[in-house]
Amino acid sequence: MLLLSFFHLFLYLSSWTWRTSATSPDQEQIVRDFFGKDGSTSTSGHTNNWAVLVCASRYWFNYRHMANALGMYRTVKRLGIPDSNIILMLADDASCNLRNKFPGSVYANPGRDLDLYGDNIEVDYRGYEVTVENFIRVLTGRMEPSVPRSKRLLTDERSNVFVYMTGHGGNEFLKFQDNEEISAHDIADAFEQMYQKKRYNEIFFMIDTCQANSMYSKFYSPNILATGSSLVGENSYSHKNDNDIGVAVIDAFTHYVLEFMEGINKTSTKTMQDLFDSYDVSKIGSHPGVRSDLFNRPLDRARITDFFGNVAHVEVTPSIEAETPAFVPPTTPGQKSERAIPSQSALPSLTTSQPLMDMRWLNNWRVARAWTSVALLGALIGWVGLQK
Amino acid sequence: MTLMSSSKTPSPPASTLNFSVVLSALVAARVALTLTGLPDVLRDDHQLASPLTSFSQLQEGIYLFNHGVDPYSGGTFRHSPLFLTLFATILPNSPRICSLLWTLCDGLGAWALVQIWRARQNVTSSERDGLIAAVYLFNPYIFLPTLALSTSSLENTLMLILLMFAARGKASPALLGLAFLVHFSLSSIVLLSPILLLLNTDQFSHLASPRPLATSIRKVVPLLGEFVVYFCLLALSSTLVSGGFAWIPQTWGATLMLPDLTPNPGLWWYFFTEIFDHFRPFFLMVFTVHLLIYIVPVCIKFQHDALYATFILLGIVGAFKAYPTLSDPGLFLSMISLFPEIYPYLRHPIVTSLLHLHAFLLLPLFHHLWLNQGTGNANFFYASTLVFACANGAAIIDCLWAGLRIAIGKPVEGYSIVQE
Amino acid sequence: MEAEEANQGPRWKQSISRLRQKFKGGANANVARLRRRKAMISSLTRRLPFFKFALFVVGYIWMLAIPSPRLGRGTYIDENALQPSQVNTYWNWGDVHAADRYLEQLEALRDVNSTSEQRAHFLETEFKKLGLPASTQNYNFSSSAGLITGTNAYALLGSPRGAGTEAMVISASWLSRTGEGDGTLNLRGISTVLALAGFLKRYSLWAKDIVFVISDGYLDGMHAWLSEYHGSTHKNLQSDPVELTSGVIWTALNIDYPGHSFSHLGVFFEGLNGRLPNQDLLNSFQRISRNTGHVPVTVYDHIDPREAPQKVEGLVSNLPKILQDNPEIQAFSYQAKNVARHIGYQARGRASGVHGLFHEYRIDAITIFAIPATGPHGFHAIGRIVESTLRTMNNLLERLHASFFFFILTDHDRFMKIGNYLPSAVLISIAMMIQGLQTWVRAGWKGEDETKLNEKQDGSSGVTPTQQPKRRPVGRALAIMTVAHLVGLVVFTALTQRLFIENIQLLAPIMFILLATIPFIMANTIGDTGPLSLVLKSFNLCLASTVISIITVLNFSLASSLAVFLGIPLSITSSSSSILTRVIKTALYSMLGFGWLLLGHREILSAVHDWEVLQVWFAPFVCLVYVPLALQALTVCVL
């Protein structure tokens, strides 16, 4: 045992020394240089991209919200964020709804040109799992140990996170499935927690709901860029209705954002400023808002692909011989089986006659109890009655 | 309604019919009522049977008991184990026979009410007897729950019998009756102190001539002790029949914790469906303590007439208890017939009667709109329970006022009375 | 407590402010308080008659103003899930052709005078040909008017992908609602349902089962079918069980298309016992009809005269030309016609069509009535509208609940909320209550007659009536009321006897005379006048007021009718010594209370039929509530 713990200590020490050596000043300089090399166009400094897409409503008549989220899903996936880096929260009751004339499909445009549902959809939180609690747990990473990796937001301080939300909302709240609400404060606090736990490099927050701009008004953590579909006191409107599906298929704001995104590819140099400039109040029907005071970079230097794509900088360098410590499992397999399993024979053997006897006995006992109780009552009443 | 009919004083020459004949006729009429299809329709009506008194749930409990399942292990059976004892052994539990039994119990209650009246007036019979019995037996608040076989009707009978014993000064039966009653319905504990008071004083009307309490408090102690003994013996009996202590949280606990929010004509259920969970314990405490705070002032103010104090507290319990049915306020209203001396001093009997008329019509109507027709909602029924509570409150306040006002005597022309 | 001598004297007439001024610095605040209270009471009693009068006036004017276009508001759709008029419809000329084929066959059946069973068998076969499970149901009702028999046919289209726990109904009755089932046949309505069955089956998007019901007769067939479907039993109904059952029915559309073609679709919505469907259903249908079918919608079969100016009739035609052209007056007269029709249905608890039977089972339903005209619409329009309405009903996720259940539809797109019309009747009932309480106080005044009492209350004495109680003959008044109600029960029992129904021409007038004499008998038996009359009047007013204010939520039309019939008449009842006035009063109150026995034989027959077959409680209500109130009023007059 003692030997084993010494071994552990050694392991720990060796990994510590390795880690400290990795973050030594000259190495940090290398990293900074690496990100600064392309500084003329992107200054983000992220190495990986994540997306959290939330459709907070359910039911058939909210088809458009599901289409909104699936439209965003398609875009971020097209621009290179893999499913492993996308957390999609979707009530998912549209495609297989009984009322859907086109089962298994979700369309975001009246002509039904593009099936957003297809066969390559990975919904991480489905149906009743789309709750405020789960959303905040995803953001802050405070998960039960049993939650699989695919349902976690495994970001670090070099992650750019795109958070998209849609549903029915109001001033400083968003309804989750007619059941509960998330408030602007909740999201702001969750982002602050992410910041303190170094879970992001930058966040781009986009929300399409009524009075959406109120939702980002409470943010206070750095490096967050936010945009919403409508002012406080203003509705966010649906865009188009498909007359065969019979419901509105997408919201206006999301529709025009997606339309803009269709012109973007992985090598595009379009910036956030271009996106915000593309907002057309007369088409959208509401006044989209942008909040960039927490964001440290000029908007015309922040590329769209910093958030929507997974465009990583790659530099081919001569291989570094790093001393990787040998991995030794902490326990040897033999230790496990030492525990004694209680022997089955110790349990009393069950025969069939015994419970029957038991039942009969119990029954008699119950009747006896009842009659004793009655006798007690009778005695009591009799005694009181005989008293003068 | 009862108020109005009962304000007919003994002045008109009453029929010289024998009281027992009148009572039998009234009971026979009531039995005829049970033979109509009404009992089956009313059985599970929320206004007539609460989860603690419903006959259907009693049958369920007895069924479970007879099949070897502990009825208190679920959440449906909340009757006292004493009911279990009686109905599993000596009493029948078929609805037909039970409706007869319930009606006979009502007849017994009416008889006891008349005995109380006689004891209070110190007469062996009076012209008013038939009227008092009729006011009890044909009070819709009394006979509808009886038709629905709500056990609250049995509680009423028990209440009247124990009051009869108390009015006759028979301490042991009265205390045993009260012990039973508290087992059936925990809120009745409120009545302990006025009944102890009644056993130590007399039952005659002293409302017009108040005087300080003559007896010493020391005499109460043995009576209290006797009550506690009976109570514990009954608890023992309950434990014996149910085979454990699980019945305590299911019966008394239900009165205090309000686990079942089935609508009833009382004031608790809606409040506790609406309230946020973290306020619940606090308000449960407030609602429970609220019932208790009346005991001391009422007993002090009516120390000269303990029967009247019991009557007032009965009204308060009926109006504010946790799982009331219509029969709880009904008993109070019918008991008004015992105190004709206060009638001239009632301030607004017609307003009270009209409030009760409104409540009596609105309760079933809004209940129907909400649960059958679906065009109303819970707020409708809640509004009607508020009207009902106002009606009960008005009746209590008026009786309280008249009971105190009578001591000052008849109003004299040119003089008025004010309270300092 | 302490007794204080009240300061009697002329100062009492002074106003509250002067009293307060005088006693402010006084030694005893209690005296001041007492005086203040008394002054307040006396000023209140002085103003009470005016207040009461104002309540009556405001209440009645309010009632008259209900059809005004200035009140009320436009209808709107409250339930998000409905999404009306947002779908393409695919009902096409091929389906219209199918409907025409069915119509030909039905006309052939009509021409050979086929029996109910033959018709039902034909319908069952046609449904089965479409591949739908179908069945028939025989029924017979026995009522005091005789035996009613018939056979229903129905078919079930199960939800292709659903669990079949919810359903919607498309129905048509054999008899059209024209003339309340006067014999006009609804052949096109039935053809529409048959063709729709074939058409709707092609779609897989139904989230609910669709039940097609072709009911026999006018109301009786559907009543039998619904009773069996929901397992409710009636003593006088014998019917086969419904073999094919589905889930809970949420909504139903009844199609009534009696003419050759139609210009407007009329919407009928009143159900049995004054129940109304949720307004969302009406509004959705209207929007769909206008936007999808391009067919104008009206309430009932009332075509707005403003659409066809040459057909000015009714109220407006008697007015001078200048007023006739006033748009507001035109709107008012049109809406007044709608409201009057509504009150006619609702107050009598009568269903305005077959849909009204569904409401009893908490199913929201309306009748779509194709108003016969020489064009321009036909099967093509109605099919598309029903298809689109079904898509909307299909979208429902829970029962209709969001919109209004209590409303008065003044026009097809305008309505009044409950809060805007309910107070009219309640105000009148409050005025009656005040009158009743005032009478009660007056009855308790010792030995004074009315004029003296008024003097007293004007303030010459400080004694309020409660301080000088006098025993009121409460028991006798209650006894009279009990007798009056028992008489009502007897009247009701008599009305439902076959003997009475068959000899109504003879027996109704006899009953009228008996009823009119009962008060005299009661008055003679009791032989006491004076306060008893006042107490009875007071109780009568209080009871009537309670009944009116409580009925308002259940059936506003009935309550407002009661308020109109009883409000003033009950308030002005009084006993009089002159024989002539007594005779006149007796005649008037008898006519008010029991005049229907002389004049409304048809109404009596239909009300009794409605009670016996459909459980409409209008007849018992009149006998057990209205007649006793009138009897008591009459007794007050003759005492």
Compute the number of helices of chain B.
20
| Chains forming the largest contact | B-C, 36 and 39 residues
The total domain count of chain B is 1
Report how far apart the termini of chain B are: 34 Å
State the share of residues found in helices of chain C, binned by percent. Answer: 40-55%
The rough form of chain B would be described as globular
CATH class of the largest domain in chain C: Alpha Beta
Number of helices of chain C: 20
Largest sheet of chain C: 9 strands, mixed
**Which structural category fits the helices and strands of chain C?**
alpha/beta
Radius of gyration of chain B using CA atoms only: 21 Å
The named CATH superfamily of the largest domain in chain C: Zn peptidases
User: Per DSSP, what share of the residues of chain B sits in E-state strands of 2 or more residues?
Assistant: under 5%
Structure characterization notes:
The complex is a heterotrimer of chains A (388), B (420) and C (639). By secondary structure, chain A is an alpha/beta fold. Chain A has nine helices and twelve strands. In chain A, helix 3 packs parallel to helix 6. About 8% of the residues of chain A have low confidence. Helices cover 64% and strands 1% of the residues of chain B. The longest helix of chain B has 28 residues. Chain B starts with a helix and ends with a strand. Chain C has 639 residues and is an alpha/beta fold. Chain C folds into two domains: 233 residues, no CATH class; 285 residues, 3-Layer(aba) Sandwich (Aminopeptidase). The longest helix of chain C is centred in the first third of the chain and has 37 residues. Chains B and C meet through helix 19 and strand 1 of B and strand 1, helix 2, helix 11, helix 13 and helix 16 of C.
